[in-house]
Amino acid sequence: MQIQVQVQQIGPSTAQGTARTHQVLIDRPLDKGGQDRGMMGGEQLLIALGGCFLSNLLAAVRARDAAISHVTLTVRGTLDSSPARFRTIDVTVDAEAADRDQLEKLVEMCDRACIVSNTLRPAVELHFRVG
């Protein structure tokens, strides 16, 4: 199985990413010579990690009819400079949960089920925790 997307230049510093029928703009901030028409690629990488993980978590919550709701993730990437890359990524999960232990178990399980975290783990230190 493969997943394919397209990324096309649409401005001096702006690209448009397309996946299936969905589109997103990618750009640099004004202070880095961009037009600030979209998130930077690094920001989108963090969003991709959070989105993949949360998708798995919500599916696990539904499958178990767990009393977990109002889930919010904070995804923080710490940069290294040479070469420019994320050294660590920390994901904090905040939610209303009747059973914190169940939430912690689901967070651990969904980290292992996420395509993005499984791809990134060999290259970056990943941490998932319940807030």
Automatic annotation (TrEMBL):
Pfam families: OsmC. InterPro entries: KH_dom-like_a/b, OsmC/Ohr_fam, OsmC/Ohr_hydroprdx_reductase, OsmC/Ohrsf. Its EC number is 1.11.1.-. Keywords: Oxidoreductase, Peroxidase. SUPFAM superfamilies: OsmC-like. It comes from the Bacteria. It is an enzyme of class 1 (oxidoreductase). This is OsmC family protein.
